[in-house]
Write a structure and sequence with these properties.
Elements (H helix, E strand, L loop, with lengths): L1 E7 L2 E11 L2 E6 L2 E6 L24 H6 L12 E3 L4 E6 L6 E2 L4 E7 L2 E6 L4 E6 L6 E2 L4 E5 L1
Antiparallel strand pairs: 1-2, 2-3, 3-4, 5-12, 6-8, 6-11, 7-10, 8-9, 10-12
Length: 147
Amino acid sequence: MKKYKFTINEKDYNVVIHDVEDDIAELEVNGTPYSIQLHQQKKSKTPILVRKEVQNKPGENKVAEKLAPMPITAKPSSKTINAPLPGSIIKINYNVGDTFNEGDILMVMESMKMENNILAEKSGTIVRVCVSPGDTVMQDEALFEIE
């Protein structure tokens, strides 16, 4: 409720505004109640938030590209050893052409501040090393190609 005092043509008016809803105002002028229609929309003190369109910079989507599903042609064959969890490569114990046995430690990677040994699940020979020390890999990313 708001009270105002007006003087129009040297005549005093006491105005009490009780309620304003949409474009209808309930008020009293010198004790007489009126319901009036406003011609101007009530302005809100609440600011309207306007956001600019987000512009991506070159290279910002690299993480999203890595997390996107691989196309069928790019999926590693059954002759790969994949990362069991995301992390950083610390040490690689085998190079191209080296043979290994089941249970050998092929590499060491750090994940969640812990060093994890990557063990060979079967015997074989390294055909290609897909990563190097310092690289960061996602889960199921190829580490070695074997035969």
